[in-house]
């Protein structure tokens, strides 16, 4: 048998200066859905997430907490692991940049860059924003009425002057522009690629890649007065996790280049400009795609610690349920666009899409089967055009969803699922199986069989989005764990008449508005 195709998907590694909120959850959720989808579609998947623990920002946060950086990062990193468990994320690895494997990987990359004449020693004098861990040119800054200089992100900048190693980024302008031209999907959404291209066209300056004014970082090999620039350190995590510097291993050969680096739009430049340049300079292939998703605000406001409105994922899940939160976040906003989180829209989705549309379909079909078919899969008799039309929609579903997922268009995948849910509900209303019980029980059996098949397709394809709920629906159809992957969609694996099915239980409860939590931390 041919080896399964590989799929490598990564999240940003999150700074451990703060506790996780729904923004971090969102990115990892998107990757989790992709990873689950690809596994069910027969791929050999590696899904990586982790924490970014070095640099001045984390160093400052540790000091503010009165802790040694390592003690502090151990503690905060654990919050991100806990989030992964809480959300039922299926990551295959969790990397921390303070691990030994990562130190080895970064130092090896540094040595390679140095050997390839891509790094030289100089001195840096310019602006730095600790909040962004980024250098800025004077021309990028704005000045507040109070005279404070700000980066484009709104982060305050400080003047930095120190000896520094530089990466010859200026040499990579042409190769980067070629990379974008040859791979128009290298950055998605397309509008974001345009931003990247115009930034690179504007000219690239050599990049400062070491710091000397603090110690919390990976020491530069043979020059320990310098620690590596935290972004060079952090980006390298994507190759550390597959064994770099050992590039001749099965893991590395299988998974590099990565299929998707999922990031928020705030860190696109690092992933779509610096990272491919570092890689090409080290003789490695750039990743296949960087997807930059949009930004969440909460009830119209930027989330921040000082506003106290950062949404705690735990609170959200306690209020609404894990699968419900997974669904709403990916359905509410076209993936790539900015979104505004509101409790009202969460409740509307839970009660409308989940309870009314999906939940009702499953509940009414399965309770009719329990009541009228002796709790076994009924026998299908002759099919009508209406039956065939619904089944045809089901058979086409995976192709549509697969195409959407290959562009990270989660909302389109969900739209396709809901089109089938609506079609199935329309079919129930037209066929009115409850009225056939006395007049034509054989026809009732056929209608319910067709509906159970529709639900089987829907549940199999919803697994990546709502793994628990979909699993419970498949349990209720007596579809075993070994036949829940996409290879088991289609007629050849259809439900077998006479198979006993368990007593149905509701999967998508309504959310009573009076009981809604506020969900803020
Ligand atoms: O940037 N809306 O880490 P970070 C949507 N360590 N997504 C959001 C969000 C929001 N309001 N807030 C955060 C770093 N995110 C670096 C990354 S990777 C080699 C190093 C998500 O903790 C989004 O994915 O600041 C964003 O890019 C990321 O968290 C930033 O996380």
Secondary-structure map with pairings?
Layout: E1 6-15, H1 22-40, E2 44-52, H2 56-64, H3 69-86, E3 93-96, H4 100-115, E4 119-129, E5 134-136, E6 142-143, E7 149-150, E8 158-167, H5 173-182, E9 187-188, H6 190-201, E10 207-208, E11 210-211, E12 227-228, H7 230-235, H8 237-240, H9 250-255, E13 260-264, H10 268-281, E14 290-293, E15 296-298, E16 301-302, H11 313-320, H12 322-332, E17 339-341, H13 343-372, H14 385-405, H15 410-431, H16 433-439, H17 441-462, H18 467-476
Parallel strand pairs: 1-2, 1-13, 2-3, 9-14, 13-14, 15-17
Antiparallel strand pairs: 4-5, 4-8, 6-7, 8-10, 11-12, 15-16
Question: How would you sum up this structure, described in words?
Answer:
With about 525 residues, this protein is an alpha/beta fold. It has a domain at about 345-495: Isoleucyl-tRNA Synthetase, Domain 1 (Orthogonal Bundle). It has 18 helices and 17 strands. It has a 6-stranded parallel β-sheet with strand order 3-2-1-13-14-9, sandwiched between helices. Strands 5-4-8-10 form a 4-stranded antiparallel β-sheet, covered by helices on one side. Helix 15 runs antiparallel to helix 17 (about 440-460). The chain starts with 5 loop residues before the first strand and ends in a 45-residue tail after the last helix. Mean pLDDT is about 95; it is low at about 515-520. Bound molecules: ligand ME8. The site of ligand ME8 has 19 residues, from strand 1, helix 1, helix 7 and strand 13.
């Amino acid at each position: 048998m041919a080896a399964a195709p590989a799929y490598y998907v990564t999240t940003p590694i999150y700074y451990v200066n703060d506790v996780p909120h729904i923004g971090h959850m969102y990115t990892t959720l998107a990757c989790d859905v992709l990873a689950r989808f690809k596994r069910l579609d027969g791929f050999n998947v590696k899904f990586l997430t982790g924490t970014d623990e070095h640099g001045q920002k984390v160093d400052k946060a540790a000091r503010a907490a009165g802790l040694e950086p390592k003690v502090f990062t151990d503690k905060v990193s654990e919050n991100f692991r806990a989030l992964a468990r809480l959300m039922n994320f299926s990551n295959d690895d969790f990397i921390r940049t303070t691990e030994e494997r990562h130190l080895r990987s970064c130092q090896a990359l540094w040595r390679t860059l140095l050997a390839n004449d891509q790094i030289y020693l100089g001195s840096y004098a310019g602006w730095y924003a600790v909040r962004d861990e980024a250098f800025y040119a004077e021309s990028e800054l704005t000045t507040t009425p109070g005279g404070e200089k700000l980066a484009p992100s709104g982060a305050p900048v400080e003047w930095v002057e120190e000896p520094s190693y530089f990466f010859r980024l200026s040499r990579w302008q042409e190769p980067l522009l070629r990379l974008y031209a040859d791979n128009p999907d290298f950055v998605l959404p397309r509008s974001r690629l345009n931003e990247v291209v115009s930034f690179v066209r504007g000219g690239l300056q050599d990049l400062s890649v070491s710091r000397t004014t603090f110690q919390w970082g990976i020491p530069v090999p043979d020059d320990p007065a310098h620690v590596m620039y935290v972004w060079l350190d952090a980006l390298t995590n994507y190759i550390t996790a597959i064994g770099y510097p050992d590039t001749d291993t099965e893991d590395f050969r299988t998974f590099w280049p990565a299929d998707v680096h999922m990031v928020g739009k705030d860190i696109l430049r690092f992933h779509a400009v610096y990272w491919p340049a570092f890689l090409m300079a080290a003789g490695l292939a750039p990743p296949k795609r960087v997807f930059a998703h949009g930004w969440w605000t909460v009830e119209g406001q930027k989330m921040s610690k000082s506003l106290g409105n950062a949404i705690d994922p735990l609170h959200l899940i306690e209020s609404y349920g894990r699968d419900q939160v997974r669904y709403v976040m990916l359905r509410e906003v076209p993936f790539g666009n900015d979104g505004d989180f509101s409790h009202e829209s969460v409740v509307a989705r839970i009660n409308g899409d989940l309870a009314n549309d999906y939940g009702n379909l499953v509940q009414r079909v399965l309770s009719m089967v329990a009541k009228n078919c002796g709790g076994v899969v009924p026998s299908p008799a002759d099919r009508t055009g209406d039956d065939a039309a619904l089944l045809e929609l089901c058979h086409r579903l995976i192709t549509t969803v697969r195409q959407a997922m290959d562009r990270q268009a989660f909302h389109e995948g969900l739209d396709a699922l809901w089109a089938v849910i609506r079609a199935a509900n329309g079919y129930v209303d037209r066929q009115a199986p409850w009225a056939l019980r006395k007049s034509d029980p054989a026809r009732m059996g056929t209608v319910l069989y067709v509906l159970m098949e529709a639900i089987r397709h829907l549940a199999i394809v919803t697994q990546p989005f709502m793994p628990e709920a979909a699993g419970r629906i498949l349990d209720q159809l007596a579809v075993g764990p070994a036949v829940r992957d996409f290879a088991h969609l289609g007629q050849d694996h259809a439900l077998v008449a006479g198979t006993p099915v368990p007593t149905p239980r509701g999967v998508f409860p309504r959310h009573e508005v009076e009981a809604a939590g506020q969900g803020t931390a």
